[in-house]
Predict the 3D structure of the following.
Amino acid sequence: VEQLFLDDVKCLSETFRLLAAILRSSAYVSWAQALLPDEILSRILRIVGKTDNATLLEKIIDFLSTIIDNRDVIAMLIQPLLKLGLVDRIIGLLTTELERSPDEKLDRSGSLDLVLHFMEELSAIHCVSKAMTSNDRLIKVLVNMIKSPDKVEVASYCASVVIVISNILTDGKHLVPKISRDLPFLEGLLEVLPEVPDDDQARYALWSILARILAQVQATELNSSSLDRFASLFSGKFGLIKDDLENQVVDEEKLTPEDALLKGWISRCLVAISFFMERWIEEKSSQGNEDSIGNAREVLSYCQKALS
């Protein structure tokens, strides 16, 4: 443990490697207790916050993941780590990786994935996702990642980002109204659909986010301008939804509980889209823009058929 207080990168990398191995051994309880003092946990988090070395980052995240993977160890260490600023340190890691120059990102191509996969693991823990819901900085960073025009060029991170957002929204329903009117974010989510067709967890997460957002919008009073924007978005991007649904057909007789939950999220989305389109068609019919209305009717018809 004393090795943690050295400033040598190679030494620290080896120390975290050994600690991870020990926490996977039968001696994990006594070693977890040895890590409990605030002085030691604070030092670990300081290293997390300032490391610029890709190898050390890998060893630290492996060590922290080992803590998460052991129920007894996490029961001892997670609350002290949260109290000492674990969430802020991990957000700092994420923003540091995002702000690197293109050349640096090329040299550290796996670092961003490492950080995001670890955030994904963390956000699955109830007390951590609850702490994340009160961190406006984290929500802003994740939303901006989905809105980024570069996201499809780094599709590997899309799955982790939507899973983290979904986990946070499960415990942070108060956040849904804040993001429900962010059309670039909604558009970004739709653009992620083709990037996660084979990742069941990410696809479930994405549809759950869409359903929560659209239910929130549906429950609020939309003025004519807002309705125009939503109708335009779904008319223009509906092909992405259609492709996803038609490429992921599930046999009703082989429906798993997870499939049933996903089907529920999708149905809520289609109901909300139908609601927007019906209102928009009704509002615009008298204005005679038949091309736009025709597209909206196609979307509405598809939704109604899929729901029947």
Summary: The radius of gyration is 23 Å. The mean pLDDT is 91. The longest helix spans residues 257-284. DSSP finds 17 helices and no strands in the chain.
